Amino acid sequence: MAKPKSGAKKPTPAAKAGAKPAAKKDNAARLDLIRNASKKVATAATKVVKAVAEGAKGKVAAAKKAVAEKVEKAPAAAKKAAAKAAPPAPTTPPAKAGKTAPAAKTAPAAPPGKKGAGKAGGKAPSVVPAGPPVEKPRPRATKLPPVGEPLTKREMEQLLTAGEGRGVTGEGSLKGRLVLSGEMPHLVVVGRDKRELTFLLQGPDQEVLPAYVDHKVSVSGLIKKTTNHSGVVEVRKYSAKKPEVEEVAPAPSDSEPKLRYLSPGEVSMAVAAGMGAGIKGFASIRGNLEMMGEDFVLVVSNGGTRQQVSFAIEGKAAVKSLRKHVGQTLQVTGVVDKTSGWGGRITAETVEPRPSEARSVSRDEMELVHIEGEVPTSVDVKLNHGLTVRLQEQPGATWAIEPTLAKRVGLREANFEQGAAGGPATREFFFTPRNPGNFEVEFFLAKAFTPGVVERSFKISVTVKP
After folding, report:
1. Where does the record place Low complexity bias (predicted)?
2. Distance of CA 138 to the CA centre of its chain
């Protein structure tokens, strides 16, 4: 055998011992790189799941591609890092060192440290946009339900009544004004009691109907009243009419304001003393018919006292045949105008006689004391018996006494009597005293509609005996 040359050097134990630590470092670097690569893969996979949840399909594909590239580059990066970490052996020739130098320089292009992972992991959230907004379900606009049962007359009344009819369903038709609410067509229908109801219009024509905003629209189909004030219409047929622009002529300046019906409370104020001055409207009132000269007067309350309320009757159609009803009770319907607290005028349209009320006190079997004319005197009257005073009236004025005194002396009637053959009219006061004592009864000749204006007066002394 040929012996080795004495000039050849054998590897010393020290060189072998130095190679083992280098190999350990190389293995540790490879393990770190593999761990970092696995972390990158896990991070990228998590982001892929998030992208799928958000609905970004295109970004999911890009993320998958990025994961594949990272997985492929991980071993190469590990090898390059190991080569960089291992110190060059003293026995390595210069030619080999020159080959590995470019590889060591290109290694930082894809460093396996945390910074590279941060950049790779930071791209997915910054690019992936938020998903599209979830749209609210719109009412059905293409399909129509099968034809249902037609609405009955009773159901239609409930459908058009505000506050009632919830749950009523059936085939029918509605008319109203088309409006838009939340970009959806609605039909505003004027129901019973002039209250408005709103119905959502659905069906294949739902996209066409908004063109007829503020038109008069008639629809027919399946009507459902979902609440007491609104509902839904599945439109099978519809017709729209453009609202006509009416040219309103200017009202003449001298025209009277539109009259209205007086409420029961206003009628009560119109016939009450000292109240309701200025009330004007259409009403029906009842009273006793009297004459003041050639004018007819309807006395509605407190007759014969200084709180008498009376209305002069106007209107040729109603006044023609009133003379034969003087002294009777009439129901007059027309325009009431109360100019003061004590009366006014009424333009009568209809006049209807009513039976006179029975007298509250019968004069039969009663001792009566009678006074005729304006004679200041003293009279004696028995308790619960009668006293009559007859006075001649004048046109535009009437005789009356104070209301409080009328209660104390017991005034029962103040009857108007038309003179025979055109003679002067008279008024008879009938008293039935209920309390014994002496009373000064004063009579006033005052204006009919202004009892505060007195022309003259006189007194009589009444002694009521038990």
Report:
1. 1-21, 53-65, 74-86, 94-114
2. 26
Task: Give the torsion sign (CA, 83, 86, 92, 95).
Answer: positive
Residue 188 has pLDDT above 90, yes or no: yes
- Give the chain's mean pLDDT: 77
User: Distance of CA 58 to CAs 48, 49, 61, 130, 353, Å?
Assistant: 11, 13, 5, 13, 96
Instruction: Walk me through the domains of the chain, giving residue ranges and CATH numbers.
Output: 153-240 (2.40.50.140), 264-353 (2.40.50), 368-464 (2.60.40.2020)
CA 393/CA 445 separation, integer angstroms: 8
Q: What is the 3-state secondary structure (H, E, C) of 229-258?
A: CEEEEEEEEEEEECCCCCCCCCCCCCCCCC
| DSSP notation for 315-356 | -HHHHTT-GGGTTSEEEEEEEEEEEETTEEEEEEEEEEEEPP
Distance CA 300, CA 283 (A): 13
* Buried/exposed code over 108-126 (b: 16+ C-beta within 10 A; e: otherwise): eeeebeeebbeebbeebee
User: Sign of dihedral through CA atoms 328, 310, 400, 438?
Assistant: positive
User: In which residue are the tokens 């309320």 written?
Assistant: 309
DSSP 8-state assignment for residue 206: G
Rounded distance between C-alpha atoms, residue 427 and residue 263, angstroms: 34
Tokens of 299: 């006395």
* Distance (Å, whole) CA 195 – CA 161: 8
What helix, strand, coil percent values describe the chain, rounded to 5?
30, 35, 35
The angle at the Cα of 397, spanning 402 to 320, to the nearest 5 degrees, equals 125
430 closest CA partner among 303, 272, 311: 303
Tokens 């982001």 belong to which residue?
47
- CA 157 to centroid of chain Cα atoms: 21
In the chain, what percentage of residues exceed pLDDT 70?
A: 67
Element (H, E) at 409: helix 403-409
Of 53, 18, 193, residue with least CA distance to 124: 53
- Burial pattern 278-303, b for ≥16 Cβ within 10 A else e, equals ebbbebbbebbbbbbeeebbbbbbbb
Residues in CB range of 19: below 8 A, 6 or more apart: 89
Cα separation of 372 and 389, whole Å? 6
User: What is the per-residue pLDDT across 98-151, written as a single tens digit (0 to 9) for each?
Assistant: 444 444 444 444 444 444 444 444 444 445 555 566 655 555 556 788 888 999
Q: Is 46 left (phi over 0), alpha (psi -120 to 50) or beta?
A: alpha
The answer to whether 218 and 199 have CB atoms below 8 angstroms apart is no
Q: So what's the pLDDT on residue 194?
A: 82
135: its two tokens: 């749209």
